[in-house]
Amino acid sequence: MTNPARDRFEEIDRATLVRCKAGDPIAFRAFVVRYERAVFALLSRVLGRGAHVEDLAQETFLRAYRAFPSFDVDAPSRPSAWLLTIATRLALDARKRKRVEPFDADAIDTATPEIETARRALGRAIEAAAAELPDDQRAAFVLAEFHGASIAEIAAALDVPEATAKTRLFRAREKMRARLQKEKEERDG
């Protein structure tokens, strides 16, 4: 089964990874440019938007830069999975240290009133449902649904066995489904 989030994402080339491993600042800049949107998206989805996301994104890339000398460019895992693992662990640590306020979906500008109203309502419902998930389930859900991570990659990011990652993702999806169904029933009357 193919994953659309994973299929549309192109990894950085091996030559650039080799140069990053050797400490080439230009290659690392290309690495940052290639993956910064994915890192910001993951952190925002796990923590909500705010200045803390920029700080954690910088910390993610700093840790990646420091870890590049030991990075295996020929490993079967994707470079994005390695980087998103770093970001996930930083995000989960940040949530443990301090409660982060969720993103306010009402702050989005609207273009066409009917479509944007429905989109914002759905976004608020998804945000509320995701906010109710335990941190580990939320991270598994975000990695799978928004970043196309495999069960093995989720397990690595959360530092748990694959069976545990699969269970966390299953439970997150079930809780999201139940919460969104309840929201729909309340809305429909």
CATH architecture: Orthogonal Bundle
CATH superfamily, called what?
RNA polymerase sigma factor, region 2, helix turn helix motif
What's the overall geometry? globular
Mean pLDDT: 82
Number of strands: 0
Q: What percent of residues are in strands?
A: under 5%
| Class computed from helices, strands and strand pairing | mainly alpha
Largest sheet: none
* Model regions low in confidence, pLDDT < 50 over at least 5 residues: 4-8, 100-110
Task: Estimate the helix proportion, in percent.
Answer: over 70%
> What top-tier CATH class fits best?
Mainly Alpha
Determine the number of helices (DSSP H or I, runs of at least 4 residues).
9
Number of domains: 1
Radius of gyration: 18 Å
* CATH third-level topology: Rna Polymerase Sigma Factor, Chain: A
Order of helices and strands: HHHHHHHHH
Distance between the termini: 37 Å
Describe this structure in words.
The chain has 189 residues and is mainly alpha-helical. It has a single domain, classed as Rna Polymerase Sigma Factor, Chain: A (Orthogonal Bundle), CATH 1.10.1740.10. The chain is 73% helix and 0% strand. It is built from nine helices and no strands. Residues 4-8 and 100-110 have low confidence and may be disordered.
